[in-house]
Amino acid sequence: MKLELWHPDCWTVEVMEETGAGVLGHGSVMDGRQAFERCTIYGDSSDHVREAVQTAKDSTRISCVQEVQSTPTESIAPESAIGMFSQDVFIEYEFTEGIGPAFFSRGFVLDGPSQMEEGREVWPLLVQMDRSALGRRIEEIQKEYDANITLNQVTPADQDRTQSSFQAQLDELTPRQRQAYELARENGYYEWPRETSVQELADDLGVSKTTFLEHLRSAENYLLDPPETQSPSE
């Protein structure tokens, strides 16, 4: 399943709103009342990422933030991550300060990185329960954390997950990648002759030409060669 959520009093909201950077969450573990999690903070420049990391450190909702690599440019983020720079961090916080433990303690398992960007969080999850029980669990979390949760996709376990539609592939793109691709398509970038230029599209999106191309090429590569179609040797 895949869901989109927002909840108040979250350190990732602070990072997104104050810096415009994004965060990938790789799952958390709990030890008593403390939660520990590895995250990837990413942005469009090394300074952008440093600013976001500092914002996380300044948050009163996190007990400790420790960089895993020495500089943002040395961090390795998934290919789908937005931005050319990223920094892996290890964070510690009280479990009541994060919504992740609320899911994991109710039987949900993270099925890939959660992504926090542009004011929203997208979580891919696995769970073994019927829809009625699923609805009750989601409702419990919404009430407990004053959260807004939207189920975007629920796929039965016996359904072939590799048979995804083009729309489903679009949904797998990060928000900036999808913006870049849809902006290019809507403005005739793929027409012949082209009806717009990369620079014009970058200006419309408010980013540099290099950054726009990074988003667009990542989107194109994913749509043309999604991970489930790649052979094990690739």
UniProtKB/TrEMBL annotation:
Pfam family, one: HTH_10
Residues in HTH bat-type domain copies: 173-224
Keyword terms of this UniProt record: Transcription, Transcription regulation
Protein name from the UniProt record: HTH bat-type domain-containing protein
